[in-house]
Sequence to fold (381 residues):
Amino acid sequence: MSDYDLLIAGGGPVGAAAALAVRDCGLQVGLASSPLPAPSDDPRPIALSHGSRLILERLGVWDQLPSPTPIERIHVSQRGGFGRAMLDAGEARLPALGYVTDYSRLAAVLSGAVERAGGCRLMRGPVAHVSASPEHVVARIDTGSGLEEVSARLLALADGGGLAHARVRVRDYGQSVVTARVDCEIPHRNVAYERFTPEGPIALLPMGERLALVWTTSPERALQLCEVPELEFLRQLQDAFGRRLGAFGNPGARSSFPLTLKVTDRIAEQRVALLGNAAQTLHPVAGQGLNLGLRDAWEFASTLRGRAREDIGAARHLQAYRARRRLDRSGGIGLTDALVRVFSNDVAPLRLARGLGLAALGAVPPARDFLVRRMTFGTRG
Fold:
């Protein structure tokens, strides 16, 4: 007999969302998680889609997020080329296209909600080893004072490292991203900017009265941007983005990390299901990664509602999860990868084609509506 019906590995936003989504299913649930970093130690900005807001509302945590900043419009352009598009929340019949907050604050809110909700045993430590059989899965959890062995009908890997447990397709984009917060001379008016450059996209997201910067560039330049004095950093940002928002100032702390696409097609097999970054790690362009992961968690929980206990983790259950996620995952992965391939270069024919595409997007409302709804709700939009 298994210790749990469901064991979730990973207490970040996706794992915690899965735990909250199954709390009313009458299951024995365990959650194994390493301690989360303090919000001040991990200030990465994250843009939540309106679809993710609906999920967080259903989980009862949206109102606990500290003042997420709504994105009312998104301005898309390319440096050194014509064509631009403006995506508008009102035109798309949405209250906002997205909401900007700190990744770590979102993680803390969801983790706190899991602790308060009860009905889920919390184990402090990462899953160090997994072995699966047709009947159950056994996980060894590193508690810091030794390994604790537990068994479950089903293991949901949401720890970001689950790709190590499956065959993975990897593409190194040869890019890194630099994140920072900057002031802007001209108020942003809740407009987000996605400006494509030959080195990669520059995203400026409204965050309070400031802007959250997500700057994709070469690894060498990313390292340099993190080390140069503030005034030189601001000068280079001004040169790359332009003066649409006036002068930038007060960049504060800067951080950088490499960008790689990692994807597995084997998201559910032999008593193990993968969610979020454990199933797919995406480029940050268009902000699809965490939003796709939250949909993974919600749809995964949907496959458990009303399911007989003895059927949990069985082959037909895992097949149901794979089927529910197939189109949404392929769409999100394909969109981000295509944007990186098409826009991160300075090839003249592609620059012309990009300009024509952006001009067409800006001029054809049905095309804009289609794109917005796919970015907001996935393929179910």
Remarks:
- The mean pLDDT is 91.
- DSSP finds nine helices and 20 strands in the chain.
